[in-house]
Amino acid sequence: MTAKAHTRASAAEVARNFGRYKELAQRAPVEVTSHGRQSIVLLAADEYARLKSLDDRQALYARELPREMVKALKSAKPPNASKAFNREMKRR
Fold this sequence. Notes:
This protein is an alpha+beta fold. The protein contains 4 helices and 3 strands; from the N terminus they run βααββαα.
């Protein structure tokens, strides 16, 4: 699917004219705002399915991790820049 210009409307406007925005969402995303800020995006079901198919993430328990990943995690060292956050671990 190629990028298409999307529509932006307030939640109140979408509620009043849901049928119209549902049809618009079949062709391009509809950005729904609440109090002037982006709240949700309406997408066609086929576009949602396409996006979901790109997500190959998995949630695993630690015991399910491959050995090479456990080994890499055990030997990982935080970057030097993270030392700036050590003060947050000190008791006040």
